[in-house]
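Appendix B, record 7
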Amino acid sequence: MNDHDLHEVLSSVKPLTSEGADALLDLREILMAEGHPGECLKCFFTLLGDLKKPGALRPLRKFLEERCEVEVCGESSELEAMPLRLEQGTDLVSFCHRAMETIRDDRAYAERSITMRVRWKVGDE
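Structure tokens (predicted):
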């Protein structure tokens, strides 16, 4: 992602507190360095709770949903990649619980152990 695109996505985000401003700066740094997408989600949900107008995060939410996915793995292999859906999340914990409930309620894997993580979409640059 280049500086101009990142500026466009983040320009309307106006945090109310210094913690929110720190999260915005951290997010910018993570995205510029192509860091871990889980850290981006942590910043996203920190910002979501620190804005007078949470709708300002719609472009960022769309950006993250287009570029990230939830990887679901069994004991020895990947089982699926689920789309990232942030539109109903209020915080990182509820987002994670919803993803786990989806696997528990809507899937029938024979695996004894399942792990999940957020990753950049495979093949995305």
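Remarks on this record: Residues 18-32 form the longest helix (15 residues). Strands lie at 68-73, 78-83, 115-120.
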